[in-house]
Amino acid sequence: MYLLGDCExxxxxxxxxTSMDKKPEDSLLINVCIVPSETVGTQCVDISQSVASPNTLxxxxxxxxxxxxxxxxxxxxxxxxxxxxxNTERVMQEVKSFxxxxxxxxxxxxxxxxxxxxxxxxxxxxxxxxxxxxxxLRINPGQPYQESYFAPYTSEQxxxxxxxxxxxxxxxxxxxxxxxxxxxxKVPEEFPALKAASLNFPLxxxxxxxxxxxxxxxxxxxxxxxx
Length: 227
Description:
Strand content: 15-25%
Strand order of the largest sheet: 2-1-8-9
CATH class: Alpha Beta
Shape: globular
CATH superfamily: Cyclic phosphodiesterase
Distance between the termini: 38 Å
Number of domains: 1
Oligomer: single chain
Radius of gyration: 17 Å
Structural class: alpha+beta
């Protein structure tokens, strides 16, 4: 067991003060994400199921809620979806495989329990080319709709969301696979007991998904194999 540290117990920060209050009509939340290997995906489901309880809001099941690692997520007008897919396909032709290196687990201030991965230069470069190719296509640049998945933000997260549509960009990007989220007031005092497992995997699959209002992916729009 590990006691929660200062990061895990971080104070909540104010949310957007200038975001849109009404979800834009004819828009989609799109998540460009890495899908782990089958072996690692199965392990993540098992770990998620092991902590599931009345205190958690969901558990991965490998079907409707499956392991994935968001690289970039933003809201787009439906009319821009074809351009999003075309730009992503173009970028993927330049991406090379690299190792996704598991470094541990993390419990965020927003109550999400995550599998953490090393923020390598390869991760940062992958995100940069996706952000550069997609950010100008998003709906309402500079004044994003306040999505349901938005956790309390630091000023830097808010700045990133306004500039790119996604809060975890660049130096504060946190490569991770979400395992569950705890209900309000139900976060454990001690870090959950998780299985000791190596969750390394080589990057081979990147998908573009439509996501629900909480950021959970559910409809595959495109899949790209990386070698």
